[in-house]
From TrEMBL:
PANTHER family: ALDEHYDE DEHYDROGENASE, ALDEHYDE DEHYDROGENASE TYPE III, ISOFORM Q. GO terms for cellular component: cytoplasm. GO terms for molecular function: aldehyde dehydrogenase (NAD+) activity. One of its GO terms (biological process) is aldehyde metabolic process. Belongs to the aldehyde dehydrogenase family. Keywords: NAD, Oxidoreductase. This is Aldehyde dehydrogenase. Residues 10-427 form the Aldehyde dehydrogenase domain. The active site is at E210, C244.
């Protein structure tokens, strides 16, 4: 087996051969990848089921289906996306024809998390290959079955010189990060994001950091409570709350808090029954360590629904908490589990005091029928992206860039934005030779006013 420096060195040599610049070569790889994924559909469901009891339905809607849509989009549009884009020339460069060339960065490192272990590994891989890069992908060590499957699928599709999966934990990631890459795409937690940024800075390597944080969900008193509770019961407990853009906590108008909690309990029971542990539709927590982390967060909380924990079976029931303190454990870190604290507000100032207590979140949700309140909320707070009157769905539109801001990350992807992320925009001005205006050439005497007029007129 090749060592990490050997893999990288071979990928660099292959990249220099210019083969990945050939769009038909990229397309042929992406088509084989699609075939491989389609023929492994059941194996993908099985792997995620084994890793954390993820239901096939959820694996389809939030991993397999999204990957196939992204592949279809790229296969359909890649020839168009790679064309140098002509932009209007400036009169100051006259005569010229100006273009943006899409250039692959070169050797790309992708590091993936465990919570959507197939989607969040394969989607960046697709876009990096589409843009003409070579890729080393490190899937998460916590989803053993999915990561093994990804490795074997990549072996079936790509020569190692183009793309390969390197499995392993922190030690492997550390060794990967010690190499000099042309681009690093990381999805994971804020603390590890900082480690990645530091390693990248050493070589001035550009990075995309897709991180997490505490994403709020504001509910005012104009909403349809039943519909709101129904949508939140879906978005919060999908993947057992282990979603980077899950609603971390609710801020509800105090006058409707009790009614909202009742409506939410009803919806949770409709989704998962009176004993959610027996529901085939509720995934498990990824491992014991995370169950214990969540159990510790629950200490001193006022549980108004759920709260059952079975450490050995990595189970935590959908749980609702009543008005925790901002300095409680549950409100100090990203929850990343099926626990939903409910906070209340009476005034706009109350909402500010809560949201501005935290770093800029990855997502923000607002449920309301009041357009002025909705627009004000969207404009006032800084966050990666969000939804009005639902959770998560902005992730599903490839025309919307997906990414964080501030501590929730930098850079974005999805759809064409993903292709752009893995491409350097190379600016090219092609100068015409049929004339050569003399104003810029010395001696400058007598030309200064003309130059000033030109700037005034054309810029
Ligand atoms: P994590 O940061 O622990 O791990 C992510 C990856 O980094 C894994 O492949 C892991 O092996 C590697 N890693 C872990 N420690 C490392 C170290 N010291 N040095 C180098 N690499 C290291 O995150 P996770 O637990 O896998 O995922 C959960 C986190 O990811 C949550 O915070 C969640 O919000 C975030 N997340 C963000 C997005 C997004 O799109 N913004 C998507 C999914 C998850």
């Amino acid at each position: 087996m090749n060592t990490i420096p050997e893999i990288l060195s071979k990928q660099r040599t292959f990249f220099k051969s210019q083969k990945t610049k050939d769009v038909s070569y990229r397309l042929s790889l992406l088509k084989i990848l699609k075939q491989e994924i389609v023929s492994n559909e059941q194996a993908i469901y099985d792997a995620l089921k084994k890793d954390f009891n993820k239901p096939e339905f959820e694996t389809f809607i939030s991993e397999f289906g999204l990957v196939i849509s992204e592949l279809n989009l790229v296969i359909k549009n890649l020839k168009k996306w790679v064309k140098p884009q002509r932009v209007k020339a400036s009169m100051l460069t006259f005569p010229s024809r100006d273009y943006i060339y899409k250039e692959p960065y070169g050797s790309v490192l992708v590091i993936a998390p465990w919570n959507y272990p197939f989607l969040l590994a394969i989607e960046p891989l697709i876009m990096a290959i589409a843009a003409g890069n070579t890729v080393v992908l490190k899937p998460s060590e916590l989803t053993e079955h999915t990561s093994k499957l990804i490795t074997s699928m990549m072996q079936n599709v790509f020569p190692e010189t183009v793309a390969t999966s390197v499995e392993g934990g922190v030690e492997t990631a550390t060794e990967l990060l010690a190499q000099k890459w042309d681009y690093i795409f990381f999805t994971g937690s804020v603390p590890v994001g900082k480690i990645v940024a530091k390693a990248a800075a050493k070589h001035l390597t550009p990075v995309t950091l897709e991180l997490g944080g505490k994403s709020p969900c504001i509910i005012d008193d104009t909403v349809d409570l039943k519909l709101t509770a129904r949508r939140i019961s879906w978005g919060k407990f999908l993947n057992a709350g282990q979603t980077c853009i899950s609603a971390d906590y609710i801020i509800v108008k105090s006058s409707i808090k009790d009614a909202f909690i009742e409506a939410l309990k009803t919806e949770i029971i409709k989704r998962y029954g009176e004993t959610p542990k027996e529901s085939p539709d509720l995934p498990r927590i990824i491992n014991r360590k995370n169950v214990l982390r969540l159990a510790d967060m629950l200490e001193e909380s006022q549980i108004v629904f759920g709260g059952e924990i079975d450490v050995d079976n990595c189970y935590i029931a959908p749980t609702i908490l009543n008005i925790p303190d901002l300095d409680s454990k549950i409100m100090s870190d990203e929850i990343f589990g099926p626990i939903l604290p409910i906070l209340t507000y009476d005034t706009e100032q109350d909402i500010e005091n809560i949201i501005w207590n935290y770093d800029k979140p990855l997502a923000l949700y607002v449920f309301s029928k009041n357009n002025a309140f909705i627009e004000q909320t969207i404009k006032k707070y800084s966050f990666g992206g969000g939804v009005v009157n639902d959770l998560l769905i902005h992730f599903g539109n490839h025309r919307l860039p997906f990414g964080g801001v501030g501590a929730s990350g930098m850079g974005a992807y999805h759809g064409k934005t993903g292709f752009n992320t893995f491409s350097h925009d190379k600016a090219i001005s092609k100068r015409g030779n049929w004339t050569d205006p003399g104003v810029r050439y010395a001696p400058y005497k007598g030309k200064f006013q003309l130059l000033k007029n030109m700037f005034k007129y054309f810029s």
